[in-house]
Design brief:
Part of a membrane-bound complex that couples electron transfer with translocation of ions across the membrane. Its EC number is 7.-.-.-. It is found in: Cell inner membrane; Endomembrane system. It comes from Methylophaga aminisulfidivorans MP. 70% of the residues lie in helices and 2% in strands. By secondary structure, the protein is an all-alpha fold. It has one domain. A two-stranded antiparallel ribbon has the order 1-2.
Length: 228
């Protein structure tokens, strides 16, 4: 199998940090009450993963083994600081909503884990792709969970899109259910746990069906080969 295809598959589905590794759940569950909040945090996480993987891969031969974790954390913290200051400058209202969860990206186990397990052991190209795919997989879960909670909780999608895209996005909000009184549980932390559990369960069902189909195909191929 093409190694780059394997990296894409691992990041987006097979080893998704939110659905399989179950890492970074604190921000995942805390800020995904709308699509825009989830997308904002997801983009910050993608930038952090790509940049940190790239720098760590580039410097992997110069970083001594006994100091690698402190160096990884320092690199990640520097990148997150740049992202945080940039969001504060250009997306201030969104920055205020995401709050402490932007600097907490530094402690996201999935970022440190990819630095240790992949970036420190591979060249720059695969490391950048791994960071991008892991970030996209994490962001996809943030956006889907945010969409579920926003739709069930307040009957809208893409509310407050102007926080990220400016005044031109004020009309992006979609009211799916008119005169909807809302469902508070969906917007509270228990709703996030329930929503994430449903997404994980759906992934497991899909994986089980795919595995069953592959097994059936292998058995059919074996029968054809035996009969011939």
């Amino acid at each position: 199998m093409n190694p780059y295809y394997q990296i894409v598959k691992e990041g987006l589905w097979k080893n998704n940090p939110a659905l399989v590794q179950l890492l970074g759940l604190c921000p995942l569950l805390a800020v995904t009450n709308t699509v825009i909040n989830g997308l904002g945090l997801g983009l910050a996480t993608i930038l952090t993963l790509v940049a940190s993987n790239g720098f760590i891969s580039l410097l992997r031969n110069q970083i001594p083994d006994e100091a690698r974790l402190p160096v990884f954390v320092m690199i990640i913290a520097s990148i997150v600081t740049i992202i945080e200051l940039s969001m504060n400058a250009w997306f201030h209202d969104l920055y205020l909503i995401l709050g402490i969860f932007i600097p907490l990206i530094v402690t996201n186990c999935s970022i440190i884990g990819r630095a240790e397990a992949f970036a420190a052991r591979n060249s720059v190209g695969p490391a950048l792709l791994d960071g991008l795919m892991m970030g996209l997989g994490f962001t996809a879960v943030l956006v889907v969970l945010g969409g579920m909670r926003e739709l069930i909780g307040q009957g809208t999608l893409f509310s407050q899109a102007e926080l990220m895209f400016g005044d031109v996005a004020k009309n992006f909000s979609i009211t799916v259910i008119d005169d909807y009184r809302g469902f508070l549980l969906a917007l509270l932390p228990p709703g996030a746990f329930i929503g994430l559990g449903l997404i994980v369960a759906l992934k497991n069902v899909i994986d089980a069906r795919l595995s069953k189909q592959q097994t059936a195909q292998v058995e059919a191929t074996a029968e054809v080969a035996t009969s011939s």
